[in-house]
Amino acid sequence: MIDIESLKVTDFIDLKLLQQFQDSFSKSMDIATVVVDKDGKPVTNPSSFTDICKTIIPTCSNGNLKCQEAHRRGGEMAVKIGKPYIYKCHAGLIDFAAPILVDGSHIGTVLGGQVLTKVPKTESYNKVISELNLDEEQFENSLKDIKIVDKEKLLAAAEALFIMANALSKIGYETLRLRLNSEKLKDEVVNKNILLEKSQNKNISLARTFSIMSHELKTPINIIFSALQLLEAQYESNSYISDSKLFCKYSKIMKQNCYRLVRLINNLIDMNKIENGFYKLKLVNSDIIKTIEDITLSVVQFANFKNIDIVFDTDVEEKITAYDPEKLERIMLNILSNAIKYTGSNGLIEVNIYDKVDLLLISIKDSGIGIPEHMHKKIFENYIQVEDSIEKKPEGSGIGLSLVKSLVEMHKGKISVKSEVGVGSEFIIELPITCVENSENNGNESIHTRDYVEKIQIEFSDIYQ
Ligand code: ADP
């Protein structure tokens, strides 16, 4: 927004134009004129000024200040009465003022005058002469040059000046309108550019997502398709029924890959819900330690397939807090599946819980391949995978940790990673201890007897082929 009060007359009206207006007015009316700002300070060069106002008053002490104050007051009064204000100045001459108003704000005044309506008597100027400490003779002589105008001419001149001030006001208003419009346009351009950049980024990210997703969908479908073709071939050679071992093998492969598809689609649906604000927590007040322990223990046998040990430890046996058990499972299974995925055989995964009274720290530490430092923040973004680890484990869509971060944040918690390439990674979740009034857990349903088998099969589907 433009603050009109802080702007000068010349910010609205070109000084050259102002001077031209004023000079032609002075010339045609044969009257002294000047344009001042709202404080009474001259903005233009005075036109047709009398000696008294040009040389005598300005050279005496405080003369300029007194003129400025008279100009300021003249302008102020003209604004108040809404027509030209005719008055006697501090030096006893008749002046008139017409205000320049922009959008209702007084930005300057056009002044005219330095005339009298009758021949002056010198003695009536004695007070002015002594107050301003003027040279009496010089003043008397100058007084003789002051134009004597009849009242009608005075009124006509004041009216003409008022019309000129109105024309200047209009120019000022149009300039203001243009300025406001150009500022609005400038803002619009900035906003449009931001939107354009956002949409370009979104397009790039969509294109990337599309290419990752196509690959992710194609791989399990190809595997399922090949397995089916093999089964069909067996069936056509009539050995299908007899070879149940082969059937089991291919059916397992197909199931495994169906889980991969389910996992990918679940992640996509959830991510989409979170991005659009449709994902809600179902909070219950319950013992979070037991849930974490159960989830951890349920993946032990999967880790053992890869000869990886999982150790669980906690410094608190029970901690009641408000959390969504299903979402906590998603969080833990995601991090644990990554830990298993990126840890070689004979590795170790440690799940530790630290009680910080108002906070709970959950640490999931592995002795796997580690994550380079420049990727520590990035891995929590959508569709981000660490290049080096792709070489080692090409599977995964890069959605998991982004989903985990959103779920942790929905619990008002934080997640961070400490990791060193070749040494291992530690994911630390910080959850505040809270309590909800309308806990959905009514105490009858034990949230700790959940069946994780299918969920683990889905979550771990890209580890075991
Ligand atoms: P993905 O489905 O590809 O595993 P995530 O979002 O779960 O996606 O993980 C993003 C990337 O972070 C992974 O591709 C991997 O490069 C890296 N990463 C995650 N967890 C670990 C870990 N424990 N050890 C090493 N790298 C990891």
Distance between the termini: 63 Å
Helix content: 40-55%
For the residues shown, what is the average pLDDT?
86
Alpha-beta classification: alpha+beta
Count the strands?
A: 12
CATH architecture of the largest domain: 2-Layer Sandwich
In total, the number of domains comes to 2
Oligomeric nature of the chains: single chain
Within CATH, the superfamily of the largest domain carries the name: Dynein light chain 2a, cytoplasmic
| CATH classification, class level of the largest domain | Alpha Beta
Can you count the helices? Answer: 14
Strand content: 15-25%
Poorly predicted parts:
389-394
Largest sheet entry = 5 strands, mixed
Order of helical and strand elements = HHEHHEEEHHEHHEHHEEHEEHHEEH
The shape is: rod-shaped
Radius of gyration: 44 Å
What is the third-level CATH name, the topology of the largest domain?
Answer: Beta-Lactamase
What is the topology?
Blueprint: H1 9-12, H2 15-29, E1 32-37, H3 51-59, H4 63-81, E2 85-88, E3 94-102, E4 105-116, H5 126-131, H6 136-144, E5 147-148, H7 151-236, H8 244-275, E6 284-287, H9 288-298, H10 300-305, E7 309-314, E8 320-323, H11 325-341, E9 348-355, E10 359-366, H12 387-392, H13 400-410, E11 414-420, E12 424-432, H14 453-459
Parallel strand pairs: 4-5, 7-9
Antiparallel strand pairs: 1-4, 2-3, 3-4, 6-8, 9-10, 10-12, 11-12
The structure holds adenosine-5'-diphosphate.
Residues 338-339, 342, 366, 368-369, 371, 379, 384-386, 389, 396-402, 425 line the site of adenosine-5'-diphosphate.
